[in-house]
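2024-03-11 09:14:02 INFO worker-7 job=invfold-0412 stage=load source=structure_tokens
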């Protein structure tokens, strides 16, 4: 009997030791911190505040290590006050970080929106310019690529993925610059006062000659794609025309598909042309030959290039893109064919006004 009592006395502390001390509860801040960390990751803290986010993760890791260390102790020795304090600090840092992310995200949102708007305007402007000259085709490939990238960036922006949207935008300026380099020099040529002064002088001399000699003359204005037939120095008829594939540029050599600029004459009328009817011009003239030789010496054209010829005013349609000739609708060439004789002057100029279609299109560029 006495032995049983002694055993019970000895076992009681052991039972109290095992079952009498409940483990301390895990601080509620632990779960809150885990949820907070997940939300910060979803908010792309690693992109919007990487340095602060790394410090936050280090503090969270330290708090977890403190918690694990405390959990490994016997229940009656566990004290979570230090861990609780560290998790509270983590939560406080997380709240500050969330505010910073929100602020940075709004900044990124506005910045990305402005970039998308600016790039969209540049693309739309360039698309409009490409429609004004035949050479516009040289820029369209890059503009199509730019439009596709812009559409992807806009889609990411609409989904509030501003980081991905900005990443898509990175290659856009390069594509737009290539497109600009392909066509803006052509437009700037038509804003160059020295070129326009030269063209004005040629046109005025042709009109004066028509008036003084009482003969018809033709002036082709490339900027507005119009052929004007003069009688006695006065405009008599106007016709819309098409130019060469690179018709906005002055012709330098055979195969460049440019429409020549200068003062020419009709040297032959061809009634059985493959393009309905045609007026053959005396290209190349002496100025063209001098320019050709000079360009070769400067290395501006291939050494094996020839000067070319067979430049005509012909039918086939005013919307045609030629190899360098001037194209009209068939009924228009019929009209001109009956009105002009062999030998009349034909002056081809880029523009006759400083404020022409092409110069005004690039104001501000």
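2024-03-11 09:14:09 INFO worker-7 stage=emit residues=365
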């Amino acid at each position: 009997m006495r032995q049983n009592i002694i055993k019970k006395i000895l076992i009681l502390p052991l039972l109290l030791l095992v079952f009498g001390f409940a483990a301390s509860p895990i601080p509620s801040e632990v779960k809150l911190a885990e949820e907070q960390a997940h939300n910060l990751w979803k908010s792309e803290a690693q992109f919007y505040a990487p340095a602060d986010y790394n410090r936050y993760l280090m503090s969270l890791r330290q708090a977890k290590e403190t918690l694990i260390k405390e959990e490994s102790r016997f229940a009656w020795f566990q004290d979570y006050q230090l861990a609780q304090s560290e998790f509270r600090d983590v939560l406080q840092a997380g709240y500050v970080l969330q505010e910073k992310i929100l602020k940075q995200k709004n900044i990124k949102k506005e910045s990305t929106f402005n970039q998308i708007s600016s790039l969209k305007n540049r693309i739309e402007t360039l698309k409009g310019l490409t429609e004004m000259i035949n050479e516009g085709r040289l820029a369209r490939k890059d503009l199509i690529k730019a439009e596709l990238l812009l559409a992807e960036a806009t889609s990411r922006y609409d989904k509030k993925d501003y980081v991905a949207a900005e990443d898509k935008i990175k290659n856009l300026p390069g594509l737009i610059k290539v497109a600009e380099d392909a066509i803006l020099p052509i437009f700037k040529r038509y804003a160059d006062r020295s070129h326009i002064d030269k063209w004005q002088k040629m046109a005025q001399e042709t009109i004066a000659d028509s008036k003084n000699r009482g003969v018809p003359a033709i002036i082709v204005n490339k900027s507005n794609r119009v052929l004007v037939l003069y009688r006695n120095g006065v405009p008599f008829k106007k016709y819309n025309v098409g130019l060469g594939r690179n018709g906005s540029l002055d012709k330098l050599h055979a195969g460049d598909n440019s429409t020549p600029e200068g003062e020419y004459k009709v040297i032959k009328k061809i009634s059985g042309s493959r393009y309905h009817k045609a007026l053959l011009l005396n290209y190349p003239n002496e100025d063209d030959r001098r320019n050709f030789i000079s360009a070769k010496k400067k290395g501006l054209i291939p050494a094996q290039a020839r000067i070319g010829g067979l430049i005509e005013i012909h039918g086939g349609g005013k919307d045609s893109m030629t190899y360098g000739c001037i194209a009209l609708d068939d009924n228009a060439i019929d009209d001109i064919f009956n009105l002009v004789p062999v030998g009349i002057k034909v002056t081809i100029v880029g523009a006759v006004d400083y404020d022409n279609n092409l110069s005004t299109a690039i104001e501000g560029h």
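2024-03-11 09:14:09 INFO worker-7 stage=report msg="Residues 23-189 form one domain."
2024-03-11 09:14:10 INFO worker-7 job finished
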